[in-house]
Request: fold
Amino acid sequence: MPVIQVDGQEYEVEAGVNLLEACLSLGLDLPYFCWHPAMGSIGACRQCAVVQYQNAEDERGRIVMGCMTPVTDGAIFSLSGDKAQGFRQSIVESLMLNHPHDCPVCAEGGECHLQDMTVMVGHRDRHYRGRKNTHRNQYLGPLINHEMNRCITCYRCTRYYRDYAGGTDLAAMASHDHVYFGRQSDGVLQSEFAGNLVEVCPTGVFTDKSLVHDYTRKWDLQSAPSVCVGCAVGCNTLPGERYGKIKRVHNRFNAEVNGYFLCDRGRFGAGFVNAGQRLLYPGLRNIDGRYDALNHHEALRHLERACAPGKVAGIGSPRASVEANFLLRTLVGEENFAPGFSDAEQPLVELALRLQQESRALVPDIATIESADAVLILGEDITNTAPRIALALRQSVRNKAYEMAAELRLETWQDAAIRNLAQDQRSPLYIASVADTPLDDVATDRISLAPDDIARLGSAIAADIAGQSYADLEQSLQAQVEAIAAALAGAQRPLIVSGTGCGSTAVLAAAAQVADALCGNGVHAMLALAVPEANSLGQALLTGGGAPGLAQLQQQAASGELDTLVVLENDLYRRGSARQIDDLLGAFKQVVVLDGLDNQTTSSATLALPAASFAESNGILVSMEGRAQHHYPVFLPQAERRPSWVWLLACMKEMQREEAQTLHHFDDITRACAAAIPALAGITAAAPDHHFRNVGVRIPRQTHRYSGRTAMRADISVHEPKQPVDEESPLAFSMEGLNRDQPGALLPYVWAPGWNSNQSLHKFQAEAGGPLKGGTAGARLLQSGTGAGSQSVTVPAPFKAEPGRWQLVPRQRIFGSDELSALSPGLAELVQPGFIEVCATDAQLLGVAEGDGLMVTMAATMAVDNTLATLEVRVNDTMAAGCAGYSVGLAGVQNLTPLATVSLSRAEGWQRRSPELIGSDRDTGPGGTHV
Ligand code: SF4
Ligand code: SF4
Ligand code: FES
Reply:
């Protein structure tokens, strides 16, 4: 390891890093703006200037940029000398010539990297007396606010947006001292990852619009370590609360799950916690069909009375915690517990789990996904189902560039040099999907096929890799099979990505087959399978496959075996057609629903109990890679809301159930679940239990800058009550305690002296850009890469488009396809009307054009009322012929089942619903033009 000298002191540093990284890792405060640990260096802002001396005799030295200077053995630097300090001070002053100095009214104020760096360099007096440039701000959509005058031209935003996230509609425009960072014209930012600009921009140009509109000073936010419930990736988050509302969500760094970035569904999709549809009080349906409000004691008695006689079934939820599901399963018995998937989804999720358990391939975390040097995506539109994985895949295609850089001995942080060197050369990424995907721009090739043909293609690739013959494919596909097989087999770290998104078990099986074929050749292949919801995999692990589905419970109820149904945090009307769910609920004498939201299922309940959201409750969720992660309450639930596990445990205790007698705390349930379910044995390692203390004290949810605690309730009393004590976790609802060096799972915020913005993260990392000092949060439950390989796979017959028949294929949308995020007002503006996509040839056959209506009817049925849906047509020439893509989760598609064969016909008198510009979820704002 090289030894360098900084201000007369010798330090041993990591080889291959730059001086800025080395200084930050050593705990030395060197200011910076344009460097970012995930994006490397470009040397644009000149803020990290230091003086480098040639040798011990050199007294003058020369100014160099820390972020562009490799550390070499014997190098001598000065950070604190007048020359370096003066230079940095003048840089901040010049960067701020046009800055409005509007800190008191700026949404970034108090958590602003520019403020911190200004103080750090000692800049105080402005000398410039000229006129400042002022810019017109743009409308960038309902999620992000733009205040261009605050820009310091560090270029971080465009580097992130264009180079890192692959966006095209944000750019640096104009020149000289008029550089403008924005869109060519007003309009919604198109990238699914645009929200990260809020954290990437070191000043207040891009800010979170929902926070700006309902403002709270950032240091007054109470926060706790949390996990995003937007999809199965399990990104770590820091929701911030004030006045019982979630005001914003920030990224919580986890080197193996989400790094520095979230997707916009996760960042802006937690508004459902504040939604008007949240239940506050239990309700008991009276004889008029209306609900009488109960207090929680009365509600508990009714719950106990409903469950006591037995004959109770439970429907769990892939969006509820392992613990709540485990308790419900214990309450109703294993044989009467359905995990809460739709009947179509259950076999898919169970298969995804089994394939990962059996595969010889590694189940990768996000850092490993970024290291892949050849990727095949089979059937999954991963940007819309597990968005953060797509951002990682965008980085994986850069491995070609890093290989080229390594040949020239260029360090990996030399961002601009490496991009210039590689230009458009990328590592191979192949996609086989039913239609276009947002990753197509970085794909080597994308092939449109029906799901069965995607599975056939996968099987053929696996056979080719294994040197076996394979079923006949079209001539054109054979060349592609050979090219893909060669790219994967020739790679060091090939990755196969698939998932439940296209609704086909054959596609999932084919993906595992390819991964195992690669492993059979001695290659360290990876297999990443996306599942739909935050705890889908946890549900599959809990039930172990073979659990009853919704249809089976309905049959048992109809035959009189069951008479009471308890539904846990699950809107069943999203899991089947209205008729199916009406029949299911109607088969039971009474239906108890525990949910936070007033949805169609809650409205069908005999007894409805208000459940706390993820932000008000402890819970463990198991992500798609089998990582158990603990989320903690950010604030306590109001009124009669209780976490589902609290309702269920209290009910079991009321019933004097033996299993409940030893359960007193949340951790006891975690331990009981781990003991009862071998596949979940590892969940106790997800985070320390509630006894943990950090050097003898709790970990505070409030920073010591938190203010106004008395004022918040001064309308009630000027006496501040004692802060509530959290009996269930090592965290405190106060400023008292220690937020330093604790286990990574317990990090509620980042802050360090002089570092008030999120850039203080490096103070919590083992080294700048490295893992947290306290270790990476979460516990992996899958024994990755230890399986015996997938069983023999049945290759489906080729898909044949029949005249007058279409196969329904799911088309997922980042905004609206999931249940919760669209309840956030900002995201709701971006959810489009339901649609159905057909290719141009099929549209012509059907006699429809873009914006027309199409009636979807059951094929081959004589039923009078066989209409399943009427949806707006999108003509998408990339859609596989004979397939009709329907928008999962959007309005009007409830009766549609993946891969069902249907008839389509033009709906007369249809009024166009979507705006003229179609093609992106975000083209709904004013003037949504692309640059
Ligand atoms: S908008 Fe923000 S990130 Fe972009 S150049 Fe300006 S200060 Fe830097
Ligand atoms: S990728 Fe999934 S888990 Fe991560 S922020 Fe987005 S929605 Fe949340
Ligand atoms: S951080 Fe080094 S030049 Fe910007």
In short: The first helix runs from residue 19 to 26. Residues 917-931 have pLDDT under 50 and may be disordered. The CA atoms of residues 2 and 73 lie 4 Å apart.
